[in-house]
Write a structure and sequence with these properties.
This protein has 195 residues and is of the alpha/beta class. It is built from six helices and 13 strands.
Amino acid sequence: MIAIVKYNAGNIRSVENALKRLGVDCVISDDPEVLSKAEKLILPGVGEASSAMAYLRERGLDQVIKERIKPTLGICLGLQLFCARSEEGNTECLGIFPEAVKRFPPKEKVPHMGWNELTALKGPLFEGVQANSDVYFVHSFYAESGPDTVAACDYILPFSAALSKGNFYATQFHPEKSADVGEQILANFLKLPAV
């Protein structure tokens, strides 16, 4: 079973639709028991870090996510919530990745919105994906580059376009909105062996 975490964030339906295009059924739930049993778990999201974390904590979903040993994917806000902390609302996040989430300095238009290229690709999420492929971003906050960075992007400054550690994967961009490249990345995640 593939499960999408229902929480205080938007963009969940577009991820569901992307999975349907790949011929995959999924459930959308905030039930800890359902989510803990999922073979693959996806935490997508467009929203605000502190209210999203409050929702996860109120329902015990923060522990469910942190304790998972099966493949788990964070998308956009999901990536940021997997990090240690966010400047958005001065929020303690899940701490799966040690990277900090910071607000882009206002040197150019913020949010970073639109297509931008991926570099320094590593790991199974990017199998069959060409370096310098374009993917779709919408974000005002970014995860710093660090030991878990498996794809980079540059907008105002270099940042983590994707992170990976153990069974946890995360993309700052939206694979569900990134055409064929995004579809390949989602398909790669779905093919990951369950531990």
